[in-house]
Amino acid sequence: MHIPSLQAQVSPEEWQLRVNLAACYRLVALFGWSDLVFTHISAHIPGPEHHFLINPYGLMFDEITASSLVKVDQHCNKLIESPFPVNPAGFVIHSAVHEVREDAGCVLHTHTRAGVGVSAQQCGVLPISQQSTFVLASLAYHDYEGVAFRDEEKPRLQADLGAANFLMLRNHGLLTVGKTIADAFLSMYVFESTCQIQIAAQAGGALTHVNPLIVKGVAEAMRVQTSGMGGAFAWPALIRKLDRIDTSYQT
Q1: Predicted TM-score (pTM) above 0.90
Q2: pLDDT at 47
């Protein structure tokens, strides 16, 4: 599939954001978190305008490139002509988060088996792994209201999310909020790992819970673990991994 390059039509800052977001889509596919052509990852383009990048609806995540990403406004109207459709219904959750969270540079949403599995459990995320402690330090829940395409759900989702960076959408999936694409991706890696570990552990015997005091101090532990860099600490290694496989996301 030939997609004309948009590099000459956008600012260097937007182009770099496009490359990083395309890389994020490819990494989500590589790690097995994609759901065919469904779910979305959105990125806010820096500036006073409420402009965003989102996937062209209908492309698999491992097909997405920097130039195929669609630039939209808060209502998911295209701002640069694109041959690809967008999914306004799929943008409802993302626009709700971007609307109230100025720190939301990226919103990443998945429908993985482990994530949906734990989201269906009444107990939610259990404090049974090191990974879970990072999630529990900033976790919120939002009850299922059906397929999320109605604007009237936005205020309730926004209220449930609050200042949290991890949101478990009950009976639906996982969502992370990051200041950067790298932050949102690393958070989702930890969130997904938490859910996979929980499902695996529940297949065994009695579970041992982490001391609640450890959860309270986990923010500092995370800062130390990443040298205060957050997702930026792991992102270059992830890009190198992706580049060893395929660099076409950069086009």
Answers
A1: yes
A2: 87
Report angle CA 21, 99, 84 to the nearest 5 degrees.
Answer: 45
Q: Is 171 left (phi over 0), alpha (psi -120 to 50) or beta?
A: left
Does 1 map to a domain? no
**Residue 39 region, left (φ>0) first, then alpha (ψ -120 to 50), else beta?**
left
The 10s digit of each residue's pLDDT in 14-72 is: 999 999 999 999 999 999 999 999 999 999 999 888 999 999 999 999 999 999 999 99
Measured CA to CA in angstroms, residue 87 lies from 33, 90, 143, 183 at distances of: 19, 5, 22, 24
Q: What is the CATH number of the domain that holds 209?
A: 3.40.225.10
Distance between CA atoms of 225 and 59, rounded to whole angstroms? 36
The count of structural domains within the chain is: 1
The answer to whether position 32 is within a domain reads: yes
Give the DSSP H or E segment for 53: strand 52-54
- Number of alpha helices (DSSP H) and beta strands (DSSP E) in the chain: 9, 7
Cα pseudo-dihedral 54, 242, 228, 188, rounded to 10: 50
